[in-house]
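Worked problem 6 (solution included).
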Amino acid sequence: MQELLPLSWTRIEGIRPIYRDITLPLSRMRWISFADIPYDYSLQILYEDLLPTYPEGFVLRGCPPSMARFFREMKCGIMRTGSEAVLNLREPHLKRKTIAGSLIRGKKQGFVEELILNESNRQLLRDFRKKTMHAEKPQLKHLFREDPDPGSRLFIFRNYDGIWLAAMTLSRRGRSEMHTELMLRNKDAPGDIMESLVAGIFGILGSEGIQEWSLGEVPFVFPGEIMISPPDTTETLMLSLASCSRHAYDFRSLYRFKNKFAPVWRPVMLCADTVPSALMLGELAIAMGFSDLLLHQSVSSLKKLLLPDLTSSSRYRRYL
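Solution. The predicted structure is:
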């Protein structure tokens, strides 16, 4: 099995890697959010390419444990940031009673279909995103491939009237590994739709000989024995801030959904050519739009608290 790359990085038939990076606002380090890496690039070759390409320093997130171990051997800094839900397509992940019931109900609503990623379907995907539950909120950025590349795949669950109820895009992480990018649900869709979509994709990928499918990361969560050693100072700070931010990003509900499929939970790491710090976490939060989302949700929560008083004041003024 080829060495796994970070989440949303892909392997390509090429001779040179293609990096997409963001400059962090204060340290001026570069966060490499996505990359297309040639199949014949080992971690050693990749590391030797990163050093001269990013002399100002680099940060990688979404790294699997094997990659984190390699970078630690290279005297780089690492920290745990969450876990990804991995499905082995040769294992019976869909046999649980809770999933079986969802699939029976889902079949009454519609069916799963793969669509070619042409411009017409790309536009339909963009339009569909506007109909999802969180469409009106500030969106997280640079964490997944929002605009699917030519090698990505698009799956939808549509009802029998042709209306999209859910959609997922997948990227190819390796020759036998796929990774979930977008996971979208129509705000008016009935329950059990996402479970049915996952099950449909599971069957399609398994029939193609794909071995592994990642449902993606759940940040700030370390199920079971993943976090064997106690968190260090920076990890403790991250987890404390995450607990205070659940009103902005409900990572626990995301965990409960993905855990329905009895996945293997694989640690997700941050790797950098320097020791991760509170400043680095803050810069990443700004760059990925988490700070904007936190502010938006905090203001919304405050308005909800104040709304009864404001409504009462408005009614009182009408009778003066």
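Discussion: Residues 311-320 have pLDDT under 50 and may be disordered.
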